Amino acid sequence: MVKKILWALASVVLAAVLIVGGFILYVTITDYKPAATVPVTIANSQEHVLKKGTSFTLTTFNIGYAGLDKDEDFFMDGGTHSRSSSKVQTVLNLNGIGTFLKDSHSDIIFIQEVDVNSSRSYHMDEIGALQNFLKGYSFSYADNYKVPWVPVPIIHPMGSAHSGLLTLSSYKSTSATRYALPGKEKWPQQLFDLDRAFIENRMPVENGKELVLVNLHLSAFDKGGSIRKQQLEFLGEYIKKESEKGNYLIIGGDWNHSLPGTDPKAFAATQDWPDWLQPFPENFKPEGFQWAVDKNTPSVRTVDTAYQEGVNFRAVIDGFLVSPNVEIVNVQGHDLQHEHSDHNPVTAEFILK
What we know:
Distance between the termini: 86 Å
Strand content: 25-35%
Strand order of the largest sheet: 1-7-8-9-10-16-13
Number of helices: 4
CATH class of the largest domain: Alpha Beta
CATH superfamily of the largest domain: Endonuclease/exonuclease/phosphatase
Mean pLDDT: 95
Low-confidence stretches: none
CATH topology of the largest domain: Deoxyribonuclease I, Chain A
Shape: globular
Order of helices and strands: HEEEHEHEEEEEHEEEEEEEEE
Largest sheet: 7 strands, mixed
């Protein structure tokens, strides 16, 4: 009898090991491994060309896969949830995001965390949904999260994930490229993490130069910001090379750092500074470049709990870094009270000198 019980227990353990091992093997074999640079398709290309001395606007918005609205939390930040609360809520969030972006009338838009086929957003094509609101723009999309199944949290796992970065423009782009950012967590965690990247769009200017746009989303939960340091080093080298060509550069998106010239203490909160948020390194300062940020409007909240004004820690982590030949006319953060995303959008007006 004892032998039978031991045999049954051993069989259960062996089956569990085989299932877990087989799953890890499958995820390893199917792991998304893009090349260092990958050409990106520009859909619905526009023909309007930028002019020196003419102002234009650019909005960046991390939409939190249309699932991190004011009532949601996220397990990686200490919460319990990994998915949008419902498909109905996902649609409501997308409609709110799309309406805001449409009404902003921005010439260029950077979007981060846009899902194309993920369990957490009920397999909605969020690009298609946003296209219904945003006519007259070209679309450039690049993956930065492509995993067949994320098995955590154990009780309610995130599931399949397919998400990325989206750049929209009412001006002509001659090319778009996905650049892989360096830095990986240890195996097997790296199998289930984002493959961080940025999208580069090259836009002709009437004076013969190019405006180089970079839509980025840096790492967030790397301990001590070690991976983010590697990504900023890579970005610094990229900026140096493009600056030497005399082009205009605008780098923007979700930096996952408290940005220079801003202070989270300006925003009332009972929560302490979260572990994942890093101060921006002082040694990252491309010569002559300027930050375009709104220090008076928080662009992100903590998501360990649902949003309560005056409780959640808030900071400015979304904004733009521009080359010396780009004039910053105005920067405005939009405090939407995190109605449809854990981030708030930021809009800037620029003039090419």
